Amino acid sequence: MSSIRPIIKWPGGKSAELPFIRPVLGDVPGRYFEPFLGGGAVLLGLPSDRQAYASDASVSLVGVYEGLKTQDHDFMSCVLSLGQTRWRLCELDGLQEWRRGYAGVPALLDGLHDPDLSALVLPAILKASAIKERWMARMGVEPVASIFETAIQAGFYNAVRQQMNDLPEGPQQSACFWFVREYAYGGMFKTTKAGRECVAYGGASYNRRQFTDRITQAMAPDMQARLSATTFQACDFEDLLTEHAAGAGDTVFLDPPYDRGFSTYDRNTFTADDHRRLADWMGRTKSRCVLVVASTEQSEAIYGNIPGSEVMRFGLRYRQGIKGRFNQQATHLMVIKPGEGMGPVEGLTASEIPKTLTMEQASAPAVEPLMEEMRHVA
Description:
alpha/beta, nine-stranded mixed beta sheet, two-stranded antiparallel sheet, 15 helices, 11 strands, 42% helix, elongated
């Protein structure tokens, strides 16, 4: 498998878990299906010549992948203007701009794709700046450039987030969605009672992260080859698998939303009944299936006894919060169902998996393995 990095931040992404997943997934000889796409870490690891089908309930997310795949004019125009405008705003001296009432900002907004967005930016920056001023007065902090650079970037982010919330689904809304995913604090989702995304800007540590770098990553030949070989759809998992007749010889990777904590992504919920529906499909399919989900009382009950499957568990410690001050241990349930006529992964059986995963291999940024092996349970 290749190692293309995901192009969009997504809660519950599987980049850290790839060392556990790849040995079990194998070489994927036939078609590949991933009906809970999210950040797409597993999909992006496939060779570009593998035919793949991927879906997600988030129309905005699928719009990002489809817009990059087809290089849709409206999508790309919006994405490029957001990246270029943020880059220009990063060049401003925050302290000087604050003293000038941000007089230098309007001239930098001419390249934005939408006059309506341009009109939102300066008021949003002034609002973010006022919040910083109140904080400085309360804390007795002297004004420095970095504080107001953050106000400028937070204001721009808030304006893009507002437009994303206001726009109907489509290429421009997906472009704004991608930008917001990049700069939302912790990559989180949070909505108001009215259903509007409301996660704050990530803060000063995000100020120098350029969206243009993410665009360049998405335009790389290996990424474009992988996207071109994939059919993307915004739909329920079962609709994708049924429409394309996933069956014998196919491989399906399943990463459904967890049944605790953050189980709602982009206003899409996945209920206990949905989990049962997925387990029922796994019991009936002739495809090879690999499912990864948080180990909870409910998930163990639903997925732990699928006919013909093997069950494993592995643990990871996630460093979350500012500078990784909060450590959270998580145990994952991995359910493997060999496909009809496919047999086990060549040269690798469930009992051998612990030998293939060392502490060094499983290491990843912001992630530390708790266990070097997975326990095979009958």
